[in-house]
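ok, trying the design again with the full structure, not the truncated one.
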């Protein structure tokens, strides 16, 4: 299959995001309490640290696998993109719940709106590229 330019761009962006997430996961202080003020946490600092780092690891792996699938134009790339979307939404929701960040609610809603818009754009790119290739077969 021919790789469209939009898929190449999306795969490169996901690769960069995945590598940066991998750096965060590898350099994270595993087994130590989360370095956040305890009054801002909804859980014990050690439990919070393990939960967030575990979710970050899943998110990192899902991102890199999705980037690989898109680059190779694998038939399972749309499913990989779906798993990537689920992993990032779960990671951000878990982080938002465990760590209370004292910001206005509107700022959080704006963040999730921008995240959703970016993820929707990515889905449209994947859907269009794979619909085009299915018609070619």
């Amino acid at each position: 299959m021919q790789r469209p330019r939009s898929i190449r761009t999306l795969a490169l962006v996901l690769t960069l995001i995945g590598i940066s997430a991998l750096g965060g996961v590898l350099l994270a202080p595993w087994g130590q309490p989360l370095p956040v003020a305890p009054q801002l946490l909804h859980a014990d600092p050690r439990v919070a640290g393990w939960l967030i780092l575990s979710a970050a690891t899943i998110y990192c792996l899902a991102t890199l696998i999705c980037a690989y699938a898109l680059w190779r134009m694998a038939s399972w790339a749309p499913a990989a993109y779906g798993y990537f979307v689920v992993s990032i939404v779960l990671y951000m929701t878990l982080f938002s719940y465990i760590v209370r960040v004292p910001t206005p609610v509107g700022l959080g809603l704006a963040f999730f709106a921008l995240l959703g818009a970016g993820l929707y754009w990515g889905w449209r790119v994947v859907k269009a590229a794979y619909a085009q290739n299915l018609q070619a077969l």
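Keeping the full-length input from now on. The chain has one domain: 5-136.
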